[in-house]
Every structure is written in structure tokens, then in C-alpha cells.
Design a protein that fits this description.
The chain has 14 helices and 14 strands. The protein is of the alpha/beta class. It has a six-stranded parallel beta sheet, with helices on both faces. A hairpin with a 2-residue loop joins β11 and β12. α1 crosses α7, α4 runs parallel beside α5 and α8 crosses α14. About 45% of the residues are buried. The mean pLDDT is about 95.
Length: about 400
């Protein structure tokens, strides 16, 4: 029997959450009813009051609620609910979480769900589930179900959707997976222009006893990879494709944000870092290229993707940024430099071949790295067998140095 958290604004949507709670109990599971309402008294008695939720983040709910500012209350609960649920998961007090909501309820509940590990059951029934949900999901596996009608009372439509959502969360917590033979994990970043490198590295890592998860460095992919690393699920990082930093720097469309490359430092995970595809920033169709970049070296990757070659100044700054990030790593890390090009199209004779820009990138990285950080210069393209072999060898050495008893 599992314990499922039913989290919601029980002042305005107490009847609906009580219905879901009853549906869960009818399946043989226990319920922990959590109130994150902000205005009226809860319509049903919660197991965890809104005051207790606020206390999880050391917030004075009495003072906050006395101002009767709904926006402030929603913001406060969006800070407190993640703290509470994270603690409950850590203490193994809950096995899943479900919520129903409109704008405010969805913001609060998904903020809490985004702080929970990948694989932990999360269901959100929302009036907003039919639109762009990226900012609600983040990098986590939140199941969002459109409410179709407003979450405002029980009727023949809402009862069916709420009951099926309750069935979904019950099915999720009831699903067991045998992980007894699970292998330690290595995450790797890849782009079309570094695919060959990763494809050559994976067999050697699998032969060494690891499972390799590959993330496409398209912004969302980099954020998802960082999230798994932060969650402590990863034993090694093969960060060959750091291209998202080029988009972050110049304003391309595939940025993973300023925290990219931070997770391995925070989690203390052994890593390899390479400047893969830092020769390019990504934009949409050619007509969408910002006017300030007209006259730059462009490459039409496909009708929807236009690549722009980073210049010497940008490469110099990218080298500094990568060095600044890597200098914070506490577990063994090695920086590998492919001297014959950081992508397929920056190799000699290719459209983005620019040895001066590459030299600016490599020199800046080297000059700004702490002397304690290992750096290897490989006279090969990033996709050559020699470079892929150097990546796998260095990563396995770093993992062994960090956790000799696990290798």
C-alpha cells in the first residue's frame, strides 16, 4: 500500500481534491492531503495545513496571508511546497503526488513536482495542459492531463477525468521495476556534429560496465542532463558537446541557460569536458537571423536551422566561461581539446574551418583553467577515433580515481 500526496488549493478546489482522494483510497492506497490554498478556509480538512507548508520554507504564513495579496501567496506556496515535498520524498513518507489546478494551483504544484526525482510519480490535472507547458514541466517527468472543463466543481466530464487521473497515479505507484541488475550511469552530450564521437565512445563505456544516457544538446537536452546529475543519479559525465553555451552567449535559440556545466561541480561527479560544437550558434530559418549577424559565416543545416560560425572574440569568451565552470569541479575532471576541429564542419576544408577562432578558444580555455585541472590536446578532429578513445580512457580513469571500489 502506497501513500499518495494529494496537493492543492483546498479553499477553492477542496471538493475536487477530496473526490480524487476518495478515488485513490478506493484503490487501496493511503492519502496525505496537503493544503496550499491562500484565501478562504479549506473546504475539506487537510492532513498538512497551509501553515505547515509555509513553515517548511521558514515563511510566516500569518503575516503573508494577512496582506490578502493572492500573487504573493501563490509565490510563497511555490517556494514552500517544493521544500515540503522534497523532505517527504527524502523521508519516504510519500510514494507519489497528484494535483488539480488552474493557473495558481498549477504553478504551485508543478513547482513542487519539479523538485522531485525523475521516476517519482507525478500527475497534474490542469486547465493549462493544452498549451505550452515547458515552464511547468522543466526537465522532469510530470504527467499533465488537460482538465478540458475548468477545475470548478464535479460534473460528468470532470468526474471522469479526475477519476482517470487518480487511476493513473495509482497505476504509477503500483508499477514495480527490477533494478537489481542496473548498471552505473554515464551521461553524454551530443549534437549532430559530434554524433560520431559519442557513437565511438559508447561501446567502450558499455564494455567497462556502464549504461550510457545520451542527451541532445538542444537546450532542453542540456537542462535534462544537468537535472539528472544534480539528482545524484550519475556516476560519470562525458560532456563532449558544450555548444549550448555558444547560444547562451550570442543569443541563439538552443541555450540551456547560465547554469549549464554547474551540476557536475555541485554533485561532485567525475567528468570529461570538451568544447564540442562551440564553433556554432543556432538560429531558426534563414529569414529569422537577427540583422546584426548579417555578413557572418552562415551554414544552412536544414530549412529550419541556420548555424552561425562563432568568431575569435566569442570563442575567447567561451573559453573563459568553460574554464570558470570547470575550475569549480571537485571530482576528477579532464578537459580535452580536439586540435583538428570541434565539429564535423570545423574540420580542415569544411565551411566553419577557422583555425584562428579555434586557437582563441583553446588558448583562452588553457589560460583560464586552474593548474590543477588536467588538460589533453589531441591532434585529431572531435569525431575521430583517436579523440573518442581519449575521452573514454580519461573518463574511466577519473571515475576510478574518484571511486576505486566501484570500478
Amino acid at each position: 500500500m502506497a501513500v499518495i500526496a494529494v496537493l492543492g488549493t483546498l479553499d477553492t478546489k477542496g471538493q475536487e481534491h477530496a473526490f480524487v482522494a476518495d478515488a485513490i483510497r478506493s484503490r487501496g492506497h493511503d492519502v496525505l492531503l496537503i493544503d496550499v490554498g491562500s484565501d478562504q478556509l479549506p473546504a475539506v480538512e487537510p492532513d498538512i495545513s497551509r501553515e505547515e507548508v509555509a513553515q517548511a520554507a521558514s515563511l510566516d504564513w500569518r503575516t503573508i496571508s494577512a496582506r490578502h495579496d493572492r500573487g504573493e501567496c501563490v509565490s510563497a506556496m511555490s517556494l514552500a511546497a517544493p521544500e515540503l515535498l522534497s523532505r517527504f520524498v527524502h523521508e519516504r513518507r510519500i510514494d507519489g503526488v497528484i494535483s488539480l489546478g488552474g493557473g495558481g494551483g498549477t504553478a504551485i504544484a508543478t513547482a513542487a513536482m519539479r523538485c522531485l526525482p525523475v521516476g517519482f510519480p507525478k500527475v497534474m490535472v490542469s486547465t493549462l495542459a493544452s498549451g505550452n507547458t515547458a515552464h511547468y514541466l522543466g526537465t522532469k517527468d510530470i504527467v499533465m492531463i488537460p482538465s478540458v472543463v475548468d477545475v470548478a466543481g464535479l460534473n460528468r466530464i470532470s468526474r471522469r477525468i479526475f477519476a482517470q487521473a487518480a487511476g493513473a497515479i495509482c497505476g504509477m505507484v503500483e508499477t514495480e521495476l527490477d533494478e537489481s541488475a542496473a548498471k552505473p550511469l554515464i551521461v553524454a552530450s551530443m549534437f549532430g556534429n559530434t554524433t560520431q564521437c559519442i557513437d565511438k565512445a559508447i561501446p567502450a563505456l558499455e564494455k567497462a560496465g556502464y549504461e550510457v544516457l545520451v542527451f541532445h544538446a538542444t537546450g532542453a537536452g542540456g537542462r535534462a542532463m544537468e537535472s539528472l546529475i544534480r539528482d545524484g543519479l550519475v556516476d560519470g559525465v562525458l560532456d563532449v558537446t558544450t555548444t549550448e553555451w555558444a547560444d547562451e552567449l550570442v543569443g541563439g535559440v538552443l541555450s540551456a541557460g547560465p547554469d549549464r556545466l554547474d551540476a557536475a561541480a555541485l554533485a561532485g561527479v567525475p567528468a570529461i569536458v570538451a568544447p564540442g560544437c562551440l564553433d556554432m550558434a543556432n538560429f531558426g530559418e534563414r529569414s529569422t537571423l537577427p540583422p546584426k549577424f548579417e555578413g557572418r559565416n552562415l551554414y544552412i543545416h536544414n530549412p529550419q536551422v541556420t548555424l552561425m560560425r562563432t568568431n575569435k572574440a566569442e570563442c575567447r569568451e567561451l573559453g573563459r566561461i568553460l574554464a570558470e565552470k570547470v575550475n569549480r569541479y571537485t571530482a576528477p575532471v579532464t578537459v580535452l581539446l580536439p586540435l583538428q576541429g570541434v565539429s564535423v564542419i570545423s574540420a580542415p576544408g569544411q565551411p566553419f574551418y577557422d583555425p584562428a577562432a579555434d586557437a582563441a578558444l583553446f588558448d583562452s580555455l588553457t589560460e583560464n583553467l586552474d593548474e590543477s585541472i588536467a588538460i589533453r590536446r589531441i591532434d585529431a578532429n572531435i569525431n575521430d577515433e583517436e579523440f573518442a578513445r581519449a575521452c573514454t580512457q580519461s573518463l574511466l580513469q577519473n571515475i576510478h580515481a574518484h571511486q576505486p571500489s566501484t570500478v
